[in-house]
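Q: How would the structure tokens look for this protein?
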Amino acid sequence: MDILLYIIPVVLVFGAQMIVTSTYNKYKSVPNKKSLTGSEVARKILDKNNYTDVHVVETKGKMSDHYDPRRKTVRLSSEVYHDATISAVSIAAHECGHVIQHKNKYAPMTIRHAIVPVVNFASRIGYVVLIIGLIASAFKLATWGIVLLCATLLFQLITLPVEFNASKRAIKALEENKLIEKSEKDRVSAMLTAAALTYVASLVANAFEILRLFLMVSVNRNRD
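A: Here is the predicted structure in token form.
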């Protein structure tokens, strides 16, 4: 059982990452019919929504795209920023979906941002409490450490609707602004769905890890 609880999370995360990478590689070689780069798509979506105060910039790394609400900046990796492919427009539109969420005060996103400091603190102190509890054979204390680690599960759970909703907004923006052809919608959806799988896999993998820790503490407590 313990081995399975180690293996399953690794397989889930690795499998999801492989799907994302293969889908990204597939569609990064497929030009979009409007010949628009990711940066051009992002700028058009933002301007159409009157978000002229949000900047679109190039950032280092592969698949390092994200929206920085503090600096009001959409950061796109070099390939996404410069390429006129299905992958590029999909990812760029997704990040603009986050901008729209932020501007509209989308509840799950607001909650996620609000709990970041609490989650960071709980995850750090959780492992400390867990280790101290195990070393001292204070298994109730160790259990409280695991409870604190559950804050990361809550964060990941809230992240799911944020990511899926951003993708939904992305497809809507691409269609309404005629930035893709109707025949390209399925390809864009496939790209965004593959990306969302990583968040689902991470949530399930983390749940298995917390279950493994809980069982480990329970076994040690029974032996004691």
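The mean pLDDT is 94.

Helices lie at 2-27, 38-48, 78-82, 86-103, 107-135, 139-176, 185-223.

Upvote if useful.
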